[in-house]
Design goal:
The complex is a heterodimer of chains A (about 675) and B (about 70).
Chain A lengths: L1 E7 L5 H9 L16 E4 L6 E5 L11 H12 L4 E7 L3 H14 L3 E6 L1 H6 L2 E3 L1 H8 L2 E4 L8 H9 L13 H16 L8 H9 L3 H9 L3 H15 L3 H20 E3 L8 H9 L5 H19 L1 H26 L4 H19 L2 H17 L1 H15 L7 H9 L1 H7 L6 H10 L9 H11 L4 H26 L9 E4 L7 H35 E2 L2 E2 L6 H13 L7 H9 L5 H10 L6 H11 L2 H13 L4 H11 L2 H29 L1
Parallel strand pairs in A: 1-3, 1-4, 4-5, 5-7
Antiparallel strand pairs in A: 2-3, 6-8, 10-11
Helix pairs in contact in A: 3-11, 7-8, 7-10, 13-16, 13-22, 14-15, 14-16, 15-23, 15-26, 16-23, 18-19, 19-29, 20-22, 21-27, 21-28, 22-28, 23-26, 24-25, 25-26, 28-30, 29-30
Chain B lengths: L10 E7 L3 H9 L7 E7 L6 E5 L2 E5 L1 H4 L2 E4 L1
Chain lengths: ~675, ~70
């Protein structure tokens, strides 16, 4: 068994290479910070080799949470080797990280990635000479397109020589480094990496190294030496190290890179940026892009497909099931369970698969182009006024697909308060699981303005999210050491195959959920709605009716006080799609969404339907999201705050809308 | 003169960085350090943050940080 870590700058193509080597389908995108968790996989076809994909790093000294995960893994785990991915089109900065990896002293080889982009930029890299100067083997790759895989596998399976790389940091620094190394060697601290690297990282202020030194009780001694030399020599050790590294790199690049003069006229990226970050157009374009995503998802492509699927499941399929069961003489209750419970409950959610696929396809496209970083750029000023960060925009948009990756994506935000705020506001971003509810109610009560009504809900969610951020800023997080430093990558045309695969994976997840959670809930709800302690009874005397009637008074002032609507909210706590599937089962409506539409017209008015949608939008998204919040905040206090706040605000907003609306209608 | 006072399109040389240790380290890791030549590429619609080109790639940060970077022409 050998373990290799993939390490490199953010957005250099680590995950593309990981997918290529392991045959996995981890999410890739075009912005720094797509990967926020380490992912472990096996080399395709050879289980002896383990590959670990890590979040991107600019150095081994971490700042944000995703960086801490990567650095700690690199520093604390015993790796057999490192595959250093280097963006060939951005060599200078990428090599800065390479130097640190080389100093670390583990066997390493380099995947020089994005060679196609480098060529377009007119860069000719002398691989042989680069190999010689760095003392490592290099494979040239275009991971996104699958080029260079065999060469890497070949190198993996052959012995990777350990390297003896060393930069001379000048007389004063070198004697300081030696002095620190001696302190380490005389202590009881055992390290599995080079002691020189330890000394250099200590001088750079690497948090992980400082912690390790503190634990071994040598921190004071190390720090005293560092402070003494810095004072005597009038230098800043970390600055000197960084300067010398860049000097070293620039002299190296003079030897190995030939830069062809490509006319410096505007690149495509510049041209696009001129428009999408334009003073007047930038923000309107972003809003228009979001609006079009919803229009396409609901009105233009999603809903026509939905009608097709609904017609099939509600008409043809449930007809077959019923006919089949009658033929084999099934009892009535069995037919009811199969047709009303299972086909109805699960089918009621499955019909939304087309909308969800379309939404995920569009969001993936947006993420893959590189546009999301521009949104962070143009929105940062506004977001910082709200106690957030431009980077918070990315988890928010991802949250439209699903809140869980949105919440995890907040790890790239450096400031802890901003990160926490970004996590807590994410449940208000209207995820795809809420779509079935909107599609159902908006389709029935607002058939002519469906797009507009749904857009208003998304918008309300955003407003509530920002309001929460603002409240937290005013009350809890008054002081913030906020920073915004972000690389703006070049635009890339998404690889169509990757888009489809990613969309399909998301769609599969949704279908799996329909087959597991929603299926079992449908059966449970069917049981609860058909039975009481007296046995099988009329639905209005069932367990579910009793439960619903018990909580219904809470919702009476919001306009939807009947037990069916209340119960659906309760079961919706598991997952929001269950709201619709519960309704399908308890209104027992002949298994199609069209049938359900007619039923709810009797129970809701347009106003109360809108209030109901607002409540569904704002209250706790689902159990899995709550679990994600707990994991990411590592705090029960904030988790309960999130649950309580969202239920409270949902009730309040639905109350205001219904009561104020009643005055006008 | 600080970077915040420069106009879009100007090419300048970094003299020094005056910010807290972590931020300074991050700027340097990303290639912005004394002696580096950078070009101010654009400003966000609300005039903040700015985006600069350095060593062939684009990076954006806020005016607040730009004020802590002194430059020369």
């Amino acid at each position: 068994m050998s373990t290799f870590a993939l390490a490199g700058n953010p957005n250099s193509g680590k995950t593309s290479l990981f997918n290529l080597l392991t045959g996995s389908r981890q999410r890739v995108g075009n912005w720094p910070g797509v990967t926020v968790e380490k992912v472990i996989g096996q080399l395709k076809g050879d289980m002896k080799y383990t590959i670990v994909d890590l979040p991107g790093l600019y150095s081994l000294a971490p700042i944000s949470i995703d960086e801490q995960i990567a650095s700690r893994y690199m520093i604390e785990e015993k790796l057999d080797g490192i595959i250093n991915i280097v963006d060939a089109s951005n060599l200078e900065r990428n090599l800065y990280f390479t130097i640190q990896l080389l100093e670390y002293g583990k066997p390493l080889f380099m995947a020089l990635n994005m060679m196609d982009v480098a060529k377009e930029k007119g860069l000719h890299i002398d691989l042989k000479q680069l190999e010689e100067r760095l003392g490592v083997k290099i494979s040239s790759t275009v991971a996104r397109k699958g080029i260079g895989k065999e060469d890497i596998i070949h190198k993996l399976k052959n012995e990777i020589p350990s390297n003896a790389f060393r930069i001379n940091y000048g007389e004063a620094m070198e004697s300081l480094i030696t002095e620190l190394e001696e302190i380490l060697e005389q202590s009881s601290m055992k390290v599995h990496y080079s002691s020189r690297w330890f000394a250099i990282q200590f001088l750079e202020g690497n948090l992980v190294i400082e912690e390790a030194a503190k634990q071994s009780g040598i921190y004071e001694a190390l720090n005293k030496v560092k402070e003494r030399v810095e004072k005597d020599q009038q230098l800043n050790a970390s600055q000197v190290i960084q300067n010398i590294r860049y000097q070293w790199i620039s002299s190296l690049l003079k030897e190995v890179v030939q830069r062809e003069q490509i006319e410096t006229a505007q690149t495509l990226t510049d041209k696009i940026d001129r428009i999408v970050t334009n003073k007047w157009l930038g923000i309107p374009i972003f809003l228009a892009v979001m609006y079009f995503i919803f229009q396409i998802t609901f009105t233009w492509i999603g809903n026509p497909l939905l009608d097709l699927v609904d017609g099939f499941i509600g008409g043809t399929l449930s007809g077959w099931v019923e006919a089949g069961l009658i033929v084999i003489n099934s009892p009535d209750w069995m037919i009811s369970l199969a047709v009303d419970g299972i086909v109805g409950g699960v089918g009621g959610v499955l019909v939304f698969v087309p909308n969800i696929l379309v939404l995920f396809l569009l969001l993936s496209f947006l993420e893959d182009t590189g546009y999301m970083t521009r949104v962070a750029f143009i929105m940062d000023k506004f977001m910082s006024k709200m106690g957030l960060n431009g980077k918070s925009i990315i988890p928010m948009v991802i949250g439209f697909g699903c809140n869980i990756p949105g919440i995890m994506g907040s790890r790239t935000i450096e400031d802890p308060n901003e990160r926490l705020t970004t996590i807590l506001m994410n449940p208000f971003m209207s995820c795809s699981a809420r779509m079935p509810v909107y599609a159902l109610f908006a389709g029935v009560f607002f058939a002519n303005n469906q797009g507009l009504i749904v857009f208003s809900l998304y918008f309300l969610g955003i407003v509530m999210a920002i309001l929460l951020a603002f409240i937290l800023k005013l009350t809890k997080f008054k002081q913030s050491e906020s920073v915004f430093i972000m690389e703006l990558p070049e635009y890339r045309l998404p690889v169509f195959k990757n888009l489809l695969l990613h969309t399909w994976d998301k769609g599969k997840g949704f279908i799996r959920k329909a087959g597991t959670i929603i299926f079992s809930m449908a059966v449970l709800i069917w049981f609860l709605s058909n039975f009481s302690f007296q046995g099988m009874v009329d639905i209005n005397h069932s367990f579910l009716a009793a439960l619903g009637s018990f909580i219904a008074p809470i919702f009476k002032p919001l306009g939807f006080g009947d037990w069916q609507a209340s119960v659906a909210l309760l079961t919706g706590f598991l997952a929001k799609e269950v709201v619709v599937s519960t309704m399908m089962v308890i209104y027992g409506t002949g298994e199609s969404v069209t049938g359900l539409s007619q039923m709810i017209q009797g129970s809701f008015s347009a106003l109360s339907a809108y209030a109901y949608m607002v409540f569904v939008l704002l209250y706790v998204p689902c159990l899995a999201t709550v679990a994600a919040i707990k994991k990411e905040t590592a705090s029960w206090k904030w988790t309960f705050f999130s649950i309580g706040y969202s239920i409270g605000i949902a009730w309040l907003m639905a109350f205001i809308i219904y009561q104020v609306g009643k005055l006008f209608i | 003169m600080t970077l915040a006072e420069c106009k879009v399109g100007e090419k300048v040389k970094i003299e020094s960085l005056h910010m807290n240790h972590n931020q300074q380290r991050r700027f340097m890791e990303m290639g912005i350090l004394p002696g580096t030549e950078i070009e101010i590429v654009r400003m966000a619609p609300l005039k903040d943050p700015i985006s600069v080109r350095v060593r062939g790639f684009q990076i954006s940060f806020r005016k607040k940080e730009a004020e802590q970077i002194t430059i020369s022409h």
